[in-house]
Amino acid sequence: MPVERTMRSYFDHNATTPVAPEVLDAMLPYLREEYGNASSIHRFGQRARAAVERARAQVASLIHCEPSEIIFTAGGTEADNLAVLGAARAGSNARKHVITSAFEHPAVLYSCRALEKEGVAVTYLPVGSQGYVDPDDVRRALRPETVLVTIMHANNEIGTVQPIEEIARIAREAGVLCHTDAVQSTAKIPLDVRSLGVDMLSLSAHKFYGPKGVGALYLRKGVSLQPVLFGGHGEHDPRPGTENVPGIVGLGAAAQLAGEILQAEIPRLSELRDRIENGVLQKIEASGVNGPSKGSPVARPDGRYLRVPNTTNLHFDYVEGESLLISLDLQGIACSTGSACSSGSTSASHVLLAIGLSVQRARGSLRFSLGRQNTSEEIDVLLQTLPAVVERLRALSPETPVGARKS
Question: Does the annotation count 341 as an active-site position?
Answer without folding.
Answer: yes
